[in-house]
Amino acid sequence: MTSERPVLFSGVRPTGRAHLGNLVGAFENWVSLQDRYECFFCVVDWHALTTGYEDTVELRPRVRDLFIDLLSVGLDPERSTIFVQSQNKDHAELALLLGMVTPLGWLERCPTYKEQLRELEGREITNFGFLGYPVLQAADILAYGGEWVPVGEDQLPHLELCREIVRRFNYIYGTALPEPKPLMSRVPMLPGTDGRKMSKSYGNDIAISAEPEEIRAKVMGMITDPARIRKDDPGHPEVCNVYSLHRAFSAHLHEAIGGECREGRRGCVACKRELSEAIVSYLGPVRARRNELLGDPGTVDRLVAGGGARARAASARILAEVRRAMNVWT
Ligand code: TRP
Ligand code: SF4
């Protein structure tokens, strides 16, 4: 499966239902990259274990659900390799080998590590696996010779660490593994229902798989411009989070909505109702595709198995090269 297109890798952790922030901020971008790159999209279940190792009963169903989400939003298993990390043990072997050249200090200094230690205080995560998170992430990318990694700002430290590991590895063993580069997208971050960045941990998210009723309930519960008491009070759309979401889901009406709000010609209840309907219809095709897949588990099983096989075949070359360079057995 040689290809002239540059290799691109990205991963997503199965830590709960994927949401609109994932869709607008990442998955839609992934869908459009499929033509120009040789793409690998990976559901990284081992990464989910780095913090969620105690209770794993939900892990398999979450992985499957996320896989279905990825297919539903338009990732194409013909053009791209869509798979589950633990299906390809090469990631684990490569992480082990990369770990040999990764100084502890690099990992301990990683800003995401320090931040997570603070945020998840009280949970026992001072573990080897958690400290090694970026090494495993580097292995994910390098196993396929990934050159481009579409990521958000929050992942830049991991990518920088990956590049440092590659340089050190190449220097020691005389290999020529490529240094992966970030592919930043221009989409502004999507706010959640409370105005902060949409995130499962804030509880302000709307799942891609949410039913219309759930979407309506979440949107109708949003806080609008607090200065508006009556519906003919002039509003300030720039401080209203409903307005920010209209930007993403009612793009063509956005200006008009802002104007009507400012002139006091738009009621907040109606405005929210319009937003919820815009989101429901935006997700319409995704929901249809999702329901189709849910009704056909055999096809999902086949696609998961096919993705894993394709991933294993694709990483074989680099793994052989790395083993040879380090003088261990193939
Ligand atoms: N750490 C990434 C995140 O939390 C997920 C991830 C794992 C990843 N391996 C990757 C992203 C490789 C890009 C490339 O979002
Ligand atoms: Fe926000 Fe719409 Fe109300 Fe204006 S009319 S404050 S944009 S919800």
Bound molecules: tryptophan, iron/sulfur cluster
Question: What is the correct CATH architecture of the largest domain?
Answer: 3-Layer(aba) Sandwich
Q: Taking Cα atoms only, what radius of gyration do you get, to the nearest Å?
A: 22 Å
The beta-strand count equals 5
Task: Characterize the structure shown.
With 330 residues, this protein is mainly α. It has two domains: 214 residues, Rossmann fold, CATH 3.40.50.620; 72 residues, Tyrosyl-Transfer RNA Synthetase (Orthogonal Bundle). The chain is 53% helix and 7% strand. It contains 15 helices and five strands. The strands form two sheets. A three-stranded parallel sheet has the order 1-2-3. Strands 4-5 form a two-stranded parallel sheet. Strand 1, helix 1 and strand 2 form a beta-alpha-beta unit. The longest helix is centred in the C-terminal third of the chain and has 30 residues. It is elongated and about 75 Å long. Bound molecules: tryptophan and iron/sulfur cluster. The site of tryptophan has 13 residues, from strand 1 and helix 8.
